[in-house]
Amino acid sequence: MKSVCVFEDKAYQNFLPLTYNRPLYELRCGIYSFLERIALQYPDTEINLFCREYLKDLLSESYPCRVNKIESNNNGCLFINGRLLMSAPISVSGREEIGIQDNTIVYARLLRKNWLPITPENLLDQNFITELKRKFNIKKVNARLVKYPWDLIDSNKEQITSDFTSYIKNGLIQRNKYEGVHLINDSQIFTGKNTIIKPGCVLDAENGPIFIGNNVKISPNSVIEGPAFIGDNAVIQPISRIRAGSNVGRVCKIGGEIMNTIIQDYSNKQHDGFLGDSYIGSWVNLGAGTVNSNLTNTYGTVKVQMFDKIIDTGQTFLGMIMGDHTKTAINTRFMTGSIIGFACNILMTRTPPKFIPSFSWYSDNVTRTYDIKRELQIAKRMMARRNKKMTRNEEKVFKTIFALTETERKLHDS
């Protein structure tokens, strides 16, 4: 029996704060997460997951597959880097070899005796990876490995189109729309079961496909431009402008104007305000009038601060990266290339700093670490509003992240 193991390497650190509470392969680009897209390539193969140890129990809650262990009876295993934007399967069968791009492992196909000693920690260790490359046959490959969050944003439009073309084959369902809904290039529009599109809406797929999941409500007089993805049980508020590249997760409530932005599940941006070229985590609430800049006045490339480093992203358009459970007050204005941490509360009338460490409370008069007990209470309240209860493992990870980010806050304070 053959199996696949999806792993994360040390580059998950480049995707913080989005990867504090999830493996990198749970991030989305296009219609699917990295893990979902890999699984689509191997429908009849056992999938295993490797992750950081503190995420193991949380991940086990979400997936039926083995986490941080592989069935020892399997003859061989194909290890796949979780930040691979996969478009075609890599053969599970074949000789042992390591697929390499730019000194990074894309995949490793190994027999039982050689994969048994490998642990998730090994694949986060550059020294172990160097040793692995010495031991086995090396094959240089050309693969789409993302390196930073802005790679996800930059690839998002193209990936929505690619996913739609490759995987959406079950027919187009357009029964639940009212009179007065206008569909442009309707062969490229998919609407799921029990989805309702109210009068005055325009779905324009002339420049790319539109995928709308099940039980979605599109309120009157909204415009959706493809390529776009809207997940199950999402609500699009009246007079919304959902522009090309918009990627809305499950159970989100969205209003105003968004463009080329990925939003993970259960987040809210219900009111007016522009959100562009950004990546937003889960359980985020953006207050009315919250906006971000996505282009500098010099039209140059956008620089970001990631902890103690300044990085030139090479992107002309880049809004912000925001971690899970962060909240903003009304009329919050974010600068181009802002990085906002996990579980922050931002209550400022002036423009916030471009880098805000996780668990920060920022107001005009006070900057301090967010009290962990209070933030946990608020997170649980928000989850309850979506009929979700925070599990023990979710709470444990929440507290672990607070401890892990202490250095982040100290670096910022210094």
Description:
- By secondary structure, the chain is of the alpha/beta class.
- It folds into 3 domains: 2-147, Alpha-Beta Complex (Spore Coat Polysaccharide Biosynthesis Protein SpsA, Chain A); 148-270, Hexapeptide repeat proteins (UDP N-Acetylglucosamine Acyltransferase, domain 1, 3 Solenoid), CATH 2.160.10; 290-414, no CATH class.
- Helix content is 20%, strand content 27%.
- It has 8 helices and 37 strands.
- Strands 10-13-16-19-22-25-30-33-35 form a 9-stranded parallel β-sheet.
- The mean pLDDT is 92.
Shape: globular
What can be said about the biggest beta sheet? 9 strands, parallel
Q: Structural class, judged by helices and strands? A: alpha/beta
Task: Estimate the helix proportion, in percent.
Answer: 10-25%
CATH class category label of the largest domain = Alpha Beta
How many beta-strand runs?
A: 37
Spatial order of strands in the largest sheet: 10-13-16-19-22-25-30-33-35
CATH H-level name of the largest domain... which superfamily? Spore Coat Polysaccharide Biosynthesis Protein SpsA, Chain A
Poorly predicted runs:
none
CATH topology of the largest domain: Spore Coat Polysaccharide Biosynthesis Protein SpsA, Chain A
Q: What is the first-to-last residue Cα distance?
A: 54 Å
Please tell me the overall pLDDT: 92
- CATH architecture label of the largest domain: Alpha-Beta Complex
**Count of domains:** 3
How many helices? The count is 8
Beta-strand percentage? 25-35%
Q: Cα-atom Rg, whole angstroms? A: 21 Å
